[in-house]
Amino acid sequence: MTAGAGLTQRTPLRDNTVQKAVLVGDRAFIEQYVAGLRESLAIDLVALAHVEDDIDAALGERTPATERITPLSLRLRSAVAQLVDAAMQVTDNQPKGDVAAAILRACRALAEWLPAEDEEGLGHLRRVALAAQDILDQDVIDEGVLDRAANLARGSQ
Fold first, then answer.
1. Which long-range contacts (CB under 8 A, 24 or more apart) does 99-106 make?
2. Rounded-to-integer distance, Cα 39 and Cα 142, Å
3. CA 95/CA 88 separation, integer angstroms
4. Do the beta carbons of residue 72 and residue 64 sit within 8 Å?
5. What angle do CA 157, 85, 151 make, to 5 degrees?
6. Is the pLDDT of residue 21 over 60?
7. Euclidean distance between the first and final Cα of the chain, in Å?
8. What is the pTM (predicted TM-score) of this model?
């Protein structure tokens, strides 16, 4: 057996092993990616399912406790992003009038950095909550969307 023949005989085995290793690596990546998507979807469903309660908590008579401001802001930001997306879909990406103004205000609120300080954090929370309420007030989002999100969020927990 020549060295060249021996090398060609071993190559398929080596290539097969490398290919399996690549597939295993891809599978791990895909599984990790899918798990991340599931977690993201669960977070988004919870955010959308609780949007009305979170608006009430942010804008109600009682100021939220300091430790609740950041989690409420993050959850409302997720809900607002979904509401903007839903409103854009309903209007075929061409919102007009009050709907366009509400979407623009929501996008401006989402463009803000999440402040670290308590007073600034509360102001940001309230702006995001007002943006969410503003979109909901436009009646472009079907109430069934929020109901389905609540049902799915309950099922994913």
1. 99/138, 99/140, 102/131, 102/134, 102/135, 102/137, 102/138, 103/135, 105/130, 105/131, 105/134, 106/80, 106/131, 106/132, 106/134, 106/135
2. 25
3. 7
4. yes
5. 25
6. no
7. 63
8. 0.68
Q: How is residue 122 written in tokens?
A: 């509360």
**Would you state the structure tokens that stand for residue 146, as one six-digit string?**
């929020």
Q: Is the pLDDT of residue 50 over 70?
A: yes
> How many other CB atoms sit within 10 Å of the CB of residue 145?
14
Nearest-CA neighbor of 126 among 46, 62, 40, 81? 62
DSSP labels, 76-121:
HHHHHHHHHHHHHHHTTT---HHHHHHHHHHHHHHHS----SHHHH
3-class SS letters over 12-27: HHHHHHHHHHHHHHHH
d(CA 141, CA 89): 10
User: In the structure, what pLDDT confidence band is assigned to residue 57 with cuts at 50, 70 and 90?
Assistant: very high
Are 142 and 87 in contact by the 8 Å Cβ rule? The answer is no
**What's the pLDDT tens digit per position in 78-136?**
889 888 888 888 888 888 899 999 999 999 998 998 887 677 899 999 999 999 999 99
Alpha-carbon span 58 to 43, nearest angstrom:
19
